[in-house]
């Protein structure tokens, strides 16, 4: 199908309030879309049906689904537009900053008391859009971050979400799986070699250890790479690739996803304490930010599920941008604030001409 026809279809679908999703896998120029034929609300507990899953951070909330068998499924080639990304100046809002620093301090206190090793805290910031168009949004989002998983999702019950995430939750192909431990952040500069401090190295190692531990029950073979520097837009992260084989007969896409989500890259460790801390203290609902999303094929024998990071929800003329960071004993509140300001750029640079 032609790109312009796909966009035309998407706009029509959106005007009729019908669910749809358009996405590109990391490093791919191919755009895939599911256009649901009716407004039926589809939710899932098990990941055994073909379609596209959109799950919230809080696993007690509803997981949405666009089923393939109730959708028109389309593909097209995406021609990358040459887009020059420019940084958007966001001045510190004193109240927002104070409240985020308080949250970071509280997380550090809990860690000092040994209630947790790591807690990922986050915030949401609203931006007014003066000249919003879905076409422009898609063109900029999909062109700007070719190595990320890019998507735009719409459902009348969730609203319009989009993002460009660098983090794989789990990729499955028959019995083989891939996941990653992604943590530690610094702005990208051309300086090499890249230096990582002990705060970032320890934080990322903790994520790797917890992921390996949670996978023991569902895997028979596990291979773990050395940590390496990975670029995501204008940021650098530390990443470890974890691959392996699912335990025969015992593990499925559903069980491995349940074992991993929410990972310590978006929640913390121990998971239960960090999760409760987040729900009690963040002061807003993350909804689908730090949830997971992606296509499921072959009844769950094949899937590419991603963690929903570097994303935003667009409501009328407001873009709600979500950002967070992992807090450990070594965290400096001012640096944590700066890190969220930097992470915000990923979506702001997409929105820049519409602000
Ligand atoms: C929670 C976010 O990032 C996570 C993923 C990579 C690095 C992170 C960090 O350095 O803190 C976070 O754990 C976010 O981008 O909102």
Automatic annotation (TrEMBL):
<protein>
    <recommendedName>
        <fullName>isochorismate synthase</fullName>
        <ecNumber>5.4.4.2</ecNumber>
    </recommendedName>
</protein>
<comment type="similarity">
    <text>Belongs to the isochorismate synthase family.</text>
</comment>
<dbReference type="InterPro" id="IPR015890">
    <property type="entry name" value="Chorismate_C"/>
</dbReference>
<dbReference type="GO" id="GO:0008909">
    <property type="term" value="F:isochorismate synthase activity"/>
</dbReference>
<keyword id="KW-0413">Isomerase</keyword>
<dbReference type="InterPro" id="IPR004561">
    <property type="entry name" value="IsoChor_synthase"/>
</dbReference>
<feature type="domain" description="Chorismate-utilising enzyme C-terminal">
    <location>
        <begin position="97"/>
        <end position="343"/>
    </location>
</feature>
<dbReference type="Pfam" id="PF00425">
    <property type="entry name" value="Chorismate_bind"/>
</dbReference>
<dbReference type="InterPro" id="IPR005801">
    <property type="entry name" value="ADC_synthase"/>
</dbReference>
